[in-house]
Every structure is written in structure tokens, then in C-alpha cells.
Amino acid sequence: MKQDLQLEKSKLRNRILAELKSQKEEDRIKRSRQIKNKLFSLPEFKQAYIIMFYVSTKFEVSTHDMIKKAIKLGKKVAVPMVSEDVSKTHPLKVTGGSIPVDKMDASFILGDWQLQSGPYNIRQPKEEHRNTVSPKELDLIIVPGVAFDDGGNRLGRGKGYYDRFLQEKSGKTRTLGLAFSFQIVNNLPFSRYDHPVEIVISA
Q1: Which domain holds residue 128?
Q2: Which residues lie below 8 Å from residue 50, measured CB to CB, with a gap of 6+?
Q3: What is the CATH number of the domain that holds 82?
Q4: What three-state secondary structure class fits 47?
Q5: Prediction pTM value
Q6: Smaller CB count within 10 Å for the chain: N or C?
């Protein structure tokens, strides 16, 4: 039964990843902008003070402009760092050494000299810019996913580190997924170890 579930997940993951890679860049940019507008209009976003974003890779819903705009709006932003043994995700506040986030030029946030490539080529803060935050401090977590369903069930990359991370959050922390419309599927396969998100925004 477990093997059947993993096979079903793997097939779906491969199909959606292929669609992500084949999507036209202009469509990815347009849809990402639409998703950003929906996100920033949500009460859950407006009320959040510390928000954890993922740093998007080439084919995902782009979060770069979201991060910059959130900081300009006065939000405190955290991004994930995956541990060296790839077993855990840690939220890190985005800072520039001793420069407070609210005093920074937002273009600084995603500069190559602040972020570096980590496990799975995920961009994460360099050591000198790391300021760990407790998961319980987070008001909102923007969770990446390969696919979601209408119930908020989520299919990740198969490593499980976000599922483990979400076990540590506070009960008050809201969780939210961002997806292109083709990433929303019916009856996504999941197990008791998989953590759903409360809200999914798509375009």
C-alpha cells in the first residue's frame, strides 16, 4: 500500500514538473503577478507581521517580487534554509548583516552576494546574513508545492522537510500555498505524515 502511494505521488510529481518546465516564461510571469495580487489582498497576509516565503526557483510561482514588496510594506520576512544533512528546514530572517530590514533597499534582498545555492540548488542566505527565527514566531508561512488539491493537501518534492518543519509551527501560524492552475488536481494522494495548507492561491 505504501509503495502504491509513493508510485502514485511520483507519477503525479513527474507530470506536474514537466508542465512547469514547459510553461512559457511570459505566462509564468503573468500568472505569478496575478497570484501576488491575490496574496497581498488577503486578510491573512495583511494581518501577518512575520512572513516566511520560499525563494522560488526558475519554474515555480515567482516569490522574488513578493518578498521585495512585503519588505517595502514593513513586513518582517523569513526564508528557509535546509540543513546540511537535508533533514530539516530552518526559517531565517532576511537581513543585511547589521542593517535592519526596514532600512534596506528591497533590491538588496535577493542580490547574489546575500543568497547562495544550498541543497537541491535552493537559494538561501549566506552564513553572514543568517538570523534564525523560531517557527513559532511566524504569522504566515508561504509553502512551496508541486501540486495541491482543493482541500489544501500538498505534494512536495518528496524529501519531507517541509512536512517536518510544519510540525514545529504555532497553532496561530497560517499556512498558504501558491500554484499555477494546472498544479491544482483532484484527490491528491497523501498520507498521515503529509501536512496540508489552509489556503491555496492559484492563477
Answers
A1: 2-202
A2: 75, 76, 77, 78, 93, 133, 137, 138, 139, 140
A3: 3.40.50.10420
A4: coil
A5: 0.84
A6: N
